[in-house]
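#structure-requests
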Amino acid sequence: MWGMIGKSMELFYRVTVLAITAAVMLVQPARALDRKDVQNCTQTVDLDRAIAGCTRALEARLPDNIRSAVYVSRGAVFEKKGDSDRAIADFSEAIRINPRSADAFFIRANAYSRAGDFDRAIADYNETIRIDPNHAKSYDGRGFAYYRKGEYDRTIADENEALRLDPKYANAYNNRGIAYGQKGDDDRAFADYDRAILIGRWPTATRRSRSIPKTSMHGSFVETPTAPKVKLRGRSRVMTMRSASIHLTPKP
């Protein structure tokens, strides 16, 4: 449903839908919160209509947690439309309203990571972890940001923590495998790809990476608008990889 935003966003989005819908029954705003605005804000077919619905919903007097959630929902739609600046602005407003929202920090961190601003992404992942030390996806996302900065040992450490918190987190195995590959530890890299395949969450990308000869694993990481790729040393072909932190098609 939210291919570029990912399953983590989907889960938060569903919770937001329930929260906003409940607000229709519970809130007594200065301007009545129209159920139609809620329906428009939370549907995913017509993105312009979703933005308009969220904007109208924000005109009502809402509890801070609901208002923050509406900003996150609208920001997610802006991101779906490719407007990262507006998306980040809405995520930032959500954080200003509800600075204890680990989800808002996490989603903004993902947006920064997708935009290539890895230092800001890491700062937001740090804040997410401070609020919720058991947030496995933030360790995974931060690990990927460290990877993009060339800090492979930190990547491995963060993926280790993500897997401690969620031993069946296939994406963390996949990302740790990439880091091991860049360090030249092919045996551990392929072992992690195998674990991801056994979990069955990302069979296509992981099997593709698993099939690359060990001597071809090491190269420079290049990101395209549609997918991150690893250029194989001495070869013209590329290997598509996936990551939770940039949320191309991540799995929870």
